[in-house]
Amino acid sequence: MHDTLILEPAQPASASVIWLHGLGADRFDFQPVAEALQGVLPGVRFVLPQAPTRPVTLNGGWSMPSWYDIIALQPERAIDMAQLEESAGQVLTLIEAQRASGIPAARIFLAGFSQGGAVVLHTAFRRWAGELGGVLALSTYAPTFSADQQLGAIQQRHPVLCLHGRDDEVVPHALGRRAYDWLAARGVDVAWRDYPMGHEVVNEELRDIALWLAERLAD
Is 146 a catalytic residue? Predict the structure, then answer.
């Protein structure tokens, strides 16, 4: 994970946010967001990993930073599950590195935009068995949530904030809402926010994220 961007806070870190970018972006994409959040959340380290560059079938086979290959959109997104599992494994490694640095698991948050959000939802609710501070799911969906899947008591305690644009032309609003509904039906402490935006991030959303993180870090 040598290409991970780590933004240290001005004071010793007491919490960490591991934040995954979207398809075709890079680890610097959310650097301005992380730096802005550090201005109001002292003591939070931001860990921004880089997706590997590989061909993406949906985009004509062009190579770009991608957490997994997207093979088709309809009727449901068909993805390369082995690559998704590989990316989730990278997130698990980052969680363990933060724990080794002295950050308790209960103060480690996973965040992801679009494809990155799909990875963190999969990691938090299908791969990671321990505590987490919470999950931020931005403009994303949950390709591996299934109707027959149940959650353990620890996973049910992961707080989640789902944020989505009502005019999202890349990941339809309905897909984001479906992930929220799935979590709510299984007793997860999940909140939903949507905004008059497309596949992007807006200031109102960032304010909601800052408030949500501050509430959980105050516990």
Answer: no
Instruction: Kindly give, in sequence order, each residue whose CB lies less than 8 Å from that of residue 13, ignoring residues fewer than 6 positions away.
Output: 43, 44, 45, 101, 103
- At residue 125, the pLDDT reads 97
In angstroms, how far is CA 89 from the centroid of its own chain?
A: 14
Task: Please pick, among 29, 80, 168, 194, the residue that the annotation labels catalytic.
Answer: 168
Q: Which domains does the chain have, with CATH numbers?
A: 5-217 (3.40.50.1820)
Give the number of other Cβ atoms within 10 Å of residue 88's Cβ.
23
Catalytic status, residue 199: yes
Q: Of these residues, 21, 114, 158, 194, which one is catalytic?
A: 114
**CA neighbours within 13 Å on the CB side: how many for 219?**
11
Provide the whole-model pTM: 0.96
Contact assessment for residue 17 and residue 44, using Cβ atoms and an 8 Å cutoff: yes
* pLDDT digit string, tens, across residues 19-53: 999 999 999 999 999 999 999 999 999 999 999 99
> What pLDDT, on the 0 to 100 scale, is given for residue 73?
76
pLDDT at 47: 98
β-pairing, 63-65 vs 190-195, is unpaired
**CB-based contact 15:132 (threshold 8 Å):** no
